[in-house]
Design brief:
single chain, 394 residues, alpha/beta, Nucleotidyltransferase, domain 5, 2 domains, eight-stranded mixed sheet, 16 helices, 13 strands, 21% strand, binds adenosine-5'-diphosphate
Length: 394
């Protein structure tokens, strides 16, 4: 019987899932992709098969599917009917925080769950939901092996100097250090470069993961040596609703002068800033690019400006640059944003091939460009499935 792997990415109000089938060749084929969204408000399950055909579209009253456990029950019912003849061999989870020590995926055990729960204060908006999904699977099928794959793990190759903050040393020991995120995406890109761009795979590469969350990573010979995100996923680039790097004095000012509570500041920094806050229109780059409102252009200009600054900083960490790689929703789909970034990076040696960029080719820099530019679609789910297979020796 064929084996399948379930991959779960649990957020605060959604539970995304993918089903991968193990092929005899060792490759993995995607058989289903879907999500329960609107948890807590208007729950809805949508799923497609591997060819993109809808296999589920269902809504419930909030009282019926109110949490991750109930959402998982609905997903389990769907998967049992679709994959009746196949064996579910394991579940891989995206877990945002692996703390200072986990530099690789982990087989979930009761002890591991205790260790991962200790990182909840480091990622209060994500970690509890990731762990809730693991517990929900345990409740349905306690014997099923589960694997936790961390967004922070790939960055544990960074040296200590780069992970420090200039706080008293004991803060570092307490875990207040730069962790970096989007690690599964960067790991996938690093694993893919030797095939699609072998000439740069072992060089000095900056990857720009530009989605609704956005960050950049410096890769040296496929290993992370620097990242724009730090202790939390608030640092670095400006994002859809997060401001990115800012003077911590602003937080003090808001606390002391405006009397904002910690919760209100959290809401401001995670949900009301970034492209949304600057434009006053929204956080969807497509909407901003189509708008002629002055603040939509201002938000885009600032988005590009921040990428330019971070690119310079990461090129300095690398001691030079061989290639820039774009990925994630904006990076993969917006030729305009790629063009604006590359124009700002001409001084580094990037010469964009406008036609290749418009066509969405893999290589988008001209043949003579000293530093090459690329578009590489990311696939965090496949990375999790690969880790799960490897750890479970499937
Ligand atoms: P995440 O996984 O962080 O939610 P994605 O990587 O899916 O985000 O990226 C989502 C973002 O990508 C959307 O907010 C949207 O602004 C942007 N996006 C998607 N397609 C396009 C496009 N064609 N042009 C510009 N932006 C796009």
């Amino acid at each position: 019987m064929e084996k399948v792997i379930l991959v779960i990415n649990a957020g605060s109000s959604s539970l995304k899932f993918s089903v991968f089938e193990l092929q005899d060749t060792g490759e993995m084929r995607v058989r289903a992709v879907g999500q329960v969204e609107g948890l807590g408000t208007a729950p809805r399950l949508k799923a497609k098969d591997g060819k993109g055909q809808s296999i589920a579209d269902e809504c419930w009253p909030n009282s019926q599917v109110a949490n991750h456990a109930q959402a998982l029950q609905e997903i389990a019912t769907l998967l049992r009917s679709r994959f009746a003849g196949q064996v579910l061999a394991g579940v891989g989870h995206r877990v945002v925080h692996g703390g200072p020590d986990y530099s690789a995926p982990l087989l979930v055990t009761p002890e591991a769950m205790d260790a991962l729960a200790a990182f909840v204060p480091l990622a209060p908006l994500h970690q509890p939901h990731n762990l809730a999904a693991i517990r929900a699977v345990q409740a349905v099928q306690p014997e099923l092996p589960q694997v936790a794959c961390f967004d922070t793990a790939f960055h544990r190759t960074q040296d200590m100097v780069g992970q420090l903050y200039g706080l008293p040393y004991e803060y570092y020991e307490r875990g207040i250090r730069r962790y970096g995120f989007h690690g599964l995406s960067y790991e996938y890109i690093a694993a893919t470069l030797p095939t699609i761009a072998p000439e740069i795979a072992s060089g000095r590469v900056v990857v720009a993961h530009l989605g609704s969350g956005a960050s950049m990573c410096a890769l040296l010979n496929g290993r992370s040596v620097g990242s724009s995100m730090g202790f939390t996923a608030l640092d670095g680039l400006m994002m859809g609703t997060r401001p990115g790097n800012m003077d911590p004095g602003i937080v003090l000012y808001l606390l002391q002068q405006d009397g904002l509570s910690a919760k209100e500041i959290e809401d401001l920094l995670y949900k009301r800033s970034g492209l949304l806050g600057l434009s006053g229109i929204g956080n969807d780059m497509r909407v901003l690019l189509a708008s002629d409102a002055p603040r939509a252009s201002l938000a885009i200009d600032h988005f590009i400006y921040r990428i330019k600054r971070e690119l310079g900083a990461l090129a300095a960490v690398l001691g030079g640059l061989d290639a820039l790689v774009f990925t994630a929703g904006i990076g993969e789909n917006s030729a305009r944003i790629r063009q604006l970034v590359c124009e700002q990076a001409q001084w580094l040696g990037i010469d964009l091939d406008l036609a290749a960029n418009e066509q969405g080719s893999a290589r988008i820099s001209s043949a003579g460009s000293r530093v090459s530019a690329w578009v590489v679609p990311t696939n965090e789910e496949l990375m999790i499935a690969r880790h799960t297979c490897k750890l479970l020796a499937l």
